[in-house]
Every structure is written in C-alpha cells, then in structure tokens.
Design a protein that fits this description.
- Helix content is 71%, strand content 2%.
- It has 282 residues and is mainly alpha-helical.
- The chain has one domain (10-272).
- A two-stranded antiparallel ribbon has the order 1-2.
Length: 282
Amino acid sequence: MPDDAAPLSPLQVWAAVAALCRREIVRFFRQRSRLVGAIGQPVLFWVFFGAGFDQAFRLADSSGRTAGSFREYYFPGTLVLILLFTAIFATISIIEDRRAGFLQSVLVAPLPRWAMVLGKVLGGTLLAWIQGLAFLTLVVTLDVDWSLLRFVNLAALLFVASLSLTALGFVVAWRMESTQGFHAIMSVFLLPLWLLSGAFFPVPAVTAESTWLQIALHGAMRINPLTYTVGGVHQLLFNGPLSDTLVLPGLGWCWAITALFAVGMFAVACVTSRTRTAADLL
C-alpha cells in the first residue's frame, strides 16, 4: 500500500473482496471448458474405475460379508478430486492476471494484502464447493442412508476443504511464472497428495509382518491432511459397514485437521503474497 494512500474503510475493504470473488466466478462462466476439466475427468474416473475394479476390490467386515463396492469406496475420493481440480484451475488465474497486469494493479491499490488473498481464494472456494455439491447428487445411485443433518455437515466440511485446497493452489501459483511450471508442480506434488489420502486405496494397517514400505506408506498417509478430509466424507456418507471396515480417524479429528489445514494454508497464502516471484517456485 502506498504511504500517502488514504486507508480504506472496512466496508470498502469487504466490497473489494466481494469484487475480486465475483470476478473469479464471472471468469469461470466465460471459460466453460474449465467445468469439463474440473468435473468431467473425475466423473469419468469414478465411472470407469468403479466398473473396472469392482470385481477385484473387496472389503469385508468381521463376519466376512462384503462391506461395499469400489464405486462406493471411491466416491469420496472423487469428490475431493473435483475440489482439488477446481481449486487448481481457479488459481491459475493468478499467473494469467500477472501477465495481463491486473495483479500489479491490485497490489498497488490501497487494499490490505489479506483482502486480495481472501477475494481470490473465496472465488475459487465457491466454485469448487458448488461443483462438489453438483457431483454429490450422484450419491442417489449408491446405497446411502441420507439425512438433512448429515448433508449439512458434509456440505460444511466440503466448503472448509475447498478453502484449504484453493489457498494451497494460491501459494503454489504465486511462486510460478508459467502455467507449464504450475502443471508440473501439480503432477509431482498435488496429485500424489490426493493419492496418499485414502482416496484410491485404504490406509494400510501396520502389523508385525508389515514391511518398511508399508509402514512408511501408513505414516505418510496419516500425516497427510487430505486423509482426514476423505475420512470425514467417508463417515458422513457411509455411516455403516463400509466406514466401519476402514481404518479411519475419528470424525472430530477429521474436522479439526481439515479446519487447521484451511486456516494454516490461508495464513501461508497471506505471507506468500508479500513476496516477489523471481522464478518458477525453485
């Protein structure tokens, strides 16, 4: 903020936040191909992987009965993948805004840096959340005991998760100068983060016969914050044989870790926004 700039009132600051948020949403509806990329690919994964792995995937309860199909197990992971993809595509706009000069105009405005971050992140969060809820309507094809309270809790958890993933995308995009570099980081960091969340395969149990690789995989999945998001979605959707068979953290822990991850990533995004970009991340 320039030294001679008059401070903005709280109402003006929040109006600027709303304007930046609205700009992200308007841009999305003008680039409808992003909808296909963000929700189309995960839906195809869910349909084809569900059909292909149903015969090989087996989860049994203590009595030996089948607890659920792969299509049911993979549904929460697909939901989180849609949030991740939408957050990624939304935060690419930071690189585009820098090239067009819009970002520089925002940075020299008499606006608190956190307001700029919140406006950009909130726009991407709402887009990811709405698309996640749209995919959630496919839950009617599964055997789910639904209720309004569980839907409200699930919608709230998805919103917090969307905020954390969009803030994470903001941090990565801020340090990038090219969309090619951004996609490379997504491939080697963000997608493995999703794979190690229990979205595609369960967290392995550690026993006396476990190898060092299984133990390392178990530890990596336990410290992954997305594991708790996926675990929370599992328990809110399948509060029965499927969720009881899996080794999932408690719902309270899922909420706490997801919320802490969102707050932490937003704080990191605010700090990162005060730095300059000299090269692609490294």
